[in-house]
Specification:
The structure holds two protein chains of two kinds.
Chain A lengths: L10 H17 L68 E3 L5 E3 L2 E6 L6 E6 L9 E2 L6 E3 L3 E9 L2 E2 L3 E8 L18 E7 L4 E8 L2 H6 L5 E10 L2 E10 L7 H21 L8 H34 L10 E9 L2 E9 L3 E6 L4 E3 L20 H4 L4 E6 L2 E7 L1 H4 L5 H17 L4 H8 L11 E8 L19
Parallel strand pairs in A: 2-9
Antiparallel strand pairs in A: 1-3, 3-6, 4-5, 4-7, 7-8, 7-9, 10-11, 11-20, 12-13, 13-14, 14-15, 15-18, 16-17, 16-19, 19-20
Helix pairs in contact in A: 3-4, 7-8
Chain B lengths: L9 H6 L12 E2 L10 H4 L24 E8 L7 H17 L3 H6 E8 L3 E9 L16 H15 L14 E6 L8 H10 L3 E7 L5 H5 L4 E5 L4 H20 L17 E4 L1
Parallel strand pairs in B: 2-3, 2-5, 5-6, 6-7
Antiparallel strand pairs in B: 3-4, 7-8
Helix pairs in contact in B: 3-8, 5-6
The chains are: A alpha+beta, B alpha/beta.
């Protein structure tokens, strides 16, 4: 091993130390911060009793303990300040900090305190200018975990005799998420989009999608997409929403998700606009019209998948490069109720929110045993399953419907019991403002630890303040004459 | 298609008596579930999903929180005495400081360390990266690889969460095992059990000339060789582990493809 650098502080270090000492009383709080910044593995013990006599005489000469070998990358360096008062002969030397505090640490730091006298007990205090015998006893097995910048004062004790004060300040900073532009500028998609529009009758729509912080940090593209439109049929208007989430592992999934949304919407708009009127008879609706509607949804998904196959062939890339989920939601009025039809392939959620604040999940999410295991519209075997994935709901009291990718839905897992929170949060935003799209875009950028995926959320709601197309006749039972 | 759950509220049944005989599939109504919160709670909810991050102590686990569990299984037998075990200590420091400068790793990685000598010991249970303290290692004893594998399997079963109806599952664990010698205990059945369980992405490293690659091949298909136990080689190994964890945490976006690992430094060769 190369010779160790001398431990005697050079002129620069001495200056730094002097500066630290000069600053200490002003800059370091004397009390501990309210939030815990360290986690000792054990509670501070009672002060260790000094051994009865004799022990001090056996004090070995000051030497480095064998268990602390010198490592090249982390030199153990004294950053202590020797107190002006000359120490008693038996008092231990200053406590050393490992690693030394001459750098900025990231996120958190395991700090070791060492004293050249092996059986010295070390006490320390965080954010203090000095430490006495009431300080926290240092446990070498547990070490100290610092999770924010702090000053630390430490002394060693042998037989009730304290060594000189060692003071240090450890600077800890959090690594920051960055926002980078993708190097590959082909098939560019905006990093965030929002939209809003009036739908049929009192219904309105707002939608937003943002690039997740992980894609931003890596300089990737947003891979979520959505599309929406109205299909005016002879007997009523269908509102269509399509949402898609491109697989993170698929290099062209942003192309896949956008193409799927566009093509599904185009097919549905034509098919539904030309669709035969729905029967007002419940049985006929069940036996004739809903099965037809199911076929329309499945055909739209198949059409989009076919277009995606063509795109893959045109680019000479495998279909898996475009892997994406597909969520379709179609809604219209029927006999004064709201009829919803949904088709979901892959994860995400389609949810209905009722006037009595109850929730109905209309989608069929694919959750694997481990996170990240899901299926896509492009997954082998999915096409054959599509008919069995269509869901219907007819509700007299529908207030809002939402279709979203897992970047949002996962944050509300389990959806059946927590998506009510989402409606509770976003409905007041879109219902009470002039710019619901912008409001939704602001909201969808919420910060949540561990939630770094792209997000897309479409929301349709019944605006009771809007003029009603037809009045529902109701018996008034209250006393107004 | 005929086995779908059909449930809705009584009012719906009264409004649409025909629904109950409907031949096609219907929505699963959350309102019919027993654990739906009372409606009043919805009005007072916060504007963003709850974030039950740690404020210093043991964090309360969020049902929607997904973690990337990383298990390090390290040989601390007597043959590691001296420079090798010191290199492992330094390697651990490097690994932690590199991962802690990565915001994605900080939000997703949870780490556990299992060491083995004459027995196996989980010196650090699965812990959020921010709260990970450098564990202490001492080299001593023999090479109880079998005990280490059994403990690994037990701890993964206990600590790694599967997706259930109320809990989001963790990402597939990433496991790094390093050993420098032949096992001295009953290890074959444990190796077979680990391989059969397909617990995650398992990378085994044969370090130095005494380690047997065939032994490691019995527990996982991914085996690498570290040519010697010199500090430089071990340092490269830990740097590569760090890069692998960072890469995995970046690529956990949903996928049906296996995790790709970063390129190996010259000190490490892949065992075919």
């Amino acid at each position: 091993m190369p010779p160790e650098p001398d431990n005697i502080p050079d002129a620069g270090q001495a200056e730094e130390i002097a500066e630290l000492v000069a600053k200490t009383p002003d800059t370091l709080p004397l009390k501990r911060p309210a939030t815990p910044v360290f986690v000792p593995a054990t509670l501070p013990d009672e002060p260790v009793e000094a051994p009865e006599n004799g022990a001090a005489l056996e004090n070995p000469p000051v030497e480095r303990p064998i268990s602390v070998p010198q490592a090249e990358s982390v030199p153990s360096q004294a950053v202590s300040v020797v107190a002006p008062v000359a120490p008693e002969p038996v008092s231990p030397p200053a406590v050393e900090f490992s690693p030394p505090p001459h750098q900025t640490f990231r996120a958190s730091l395991t700090l070791e305190l060492r004293c050249a006298t092996p059986d010295a007990s070390i006490r320390y205090a965080l954010g203090a200018a000095d430490v006495g015998e009431d300080g926290t006893l240092y446990d070498p097995a547990a070490k100290i975990l610092l999770t924010q910048s702090t000053g630390i004062a430490a002394r060693a004790w042998v037989n009730g005799e304290s060594g000189p004060l060692a003071l240090a300040h450890f600077e800890i900073s959090q690594p920051q998420w960055e926002k980078k532009e993708p190097l590959d500028q082909s098939d560019a998609t905006p990093h965030e989009i929002s939209d809003q529009r009036a739908l049929e009758g009192p219904w309105k729509l707002a939608a937003a999608s943002v690039r997740g912080k992980l894609h931003a940090h890596r300089g990737g593209w947003r891979e979520d997409a959505f599309a929406h439109d109205l299909a005016p049929a002879a007997d009523g208007t269908y509102a269509i929403v399509v949402v898609s989430d491109g697989a993170g592992s698929a290099p062209l999934s942003r192309v896949g998700s956008n193409l799927l949304c566009r093509e599904t919407l185009a097919h549905l708009r034509d098919a539904l606009t030309q669709s035969a009127p729905l029967s007002t008879d419940a049985q006929e609706l069940r036996e004739r019209d809903l099965p037809l509607l199911r076929v329309v949804l499945v055909e739209a998904a198949r059409h989009a998948l076919q277009k995606l196959n063509e795109e893959a062939a045109k680019r000479a890339r495998p279909l898996s490069d475009f892997a994406s989920t597909l969520l379709i939601l179609v809604r219209r009025e029927w006999n004064g109720q709201q009829l919803c039809a949904a088709l979901q392939a892959g994860d995400g959620a389609i949810a209905l929110w009722n006037d009595d604040n109850t929730l109905t999940l209309l989608g069929m999410a694919d959750h694997g045993e481990n996170s990240g295991e899901t299926r896509f519209i492009t997954t082998v075997g999915m096409e054959a399953e599509l008919p069995s994935r269509v869901r219907f709901s007819i509700r007299p009291n529908l207030h809002a419907v939402a279709a979203m990718t897992d970047g949002v839905a996962d944050d509300y897992f389990p959806e059946a019991t927590r998506l009510n929170q989402l409606f509770g949060a976003v409905l007041p935003l879109v219902e009470n403002g002039d710019a619901p799209g912008a409001a939704l875009l602001r909201w969808i950028q919420y910060e949540k630890k561990g939630s770094s995926d792209d997000r897309a959320l479409t929301l349709c709601w019944r605006d009771d303040a809007a003029p009603q197309p037809e009045t529902v006749t109701e018996e008034t039972s209250d006393g107004h004459a | 298609m005929t086995s779908q759950l059909i449930s809705w509220k009584v009012r719906d049944l009264m409004t649409f008596p025909f629904l109950s005989q409907l031949g096609i599939t219907f929505a699963l109504s959350a309102a019919a579930m027993s654990d739906i919160p009372p409606p009043e709670t919805a009005a007072t909810e916060v504007a963003a999903p709850e974030n039950s991050s740690s404020d210093g102590g043991a964090p309360e686990l969020d049902a929607s929180m997904r973690r990337l569990p990383v298990y390090l299984v390290l040989d601390c037998s007597g043959s590691m005495t001296g420079e090798p075990i010191e290199a492992v200590r330094q390697g651990m420091k490097t690994l932690l400081s590199e991962l802690k400068s990565d915001p994605q790793a900080l939000e997703t990685v949870w780490m556990s360390v299992i060491t083995f000598d004459s027995g196996a010991n989980q010196v650090m249970p699965l812990t959020e990266l921010l709260m990970v303290k450098e564990p202490s290692f001492e080299a001593r004893g023999t090479t109880a690889l079998g005990a280490a594998l059994r403990l690994l399997l037990d701890q993964i079963n206990q600590e790694v969460r599967k997706t259930t109806s109320t809990q989001k599952g963790d990402w597939k664990p990433l496991i790094f095992l390093m050993t420098d010698g032949e096992p001295t205990d009953q290890w074959e059945d444990a190796a077979d059990a680990v391989k059969a369980a397909r617990v995650g992405n398992f990378i085994a490293c044969a370090a130095g000339s005494q380690a047997n690659e065939a032994t490691l091949k019995r527990m996982t298909d991914v085996v690498v060789r570290l040519n010697d136990l010199q500090p430089d080689a071990l340092k490269q190994f830990f740097k590569w582990v760090s890069a692998s964890v960072a890469t995995t945490s970046m690529n956990i976006a949903k996928s049906d493809a296996p995790v790709g690992l970063p390129a190996l430094p010259p000190e490490i060769v892949i065992v075919p």
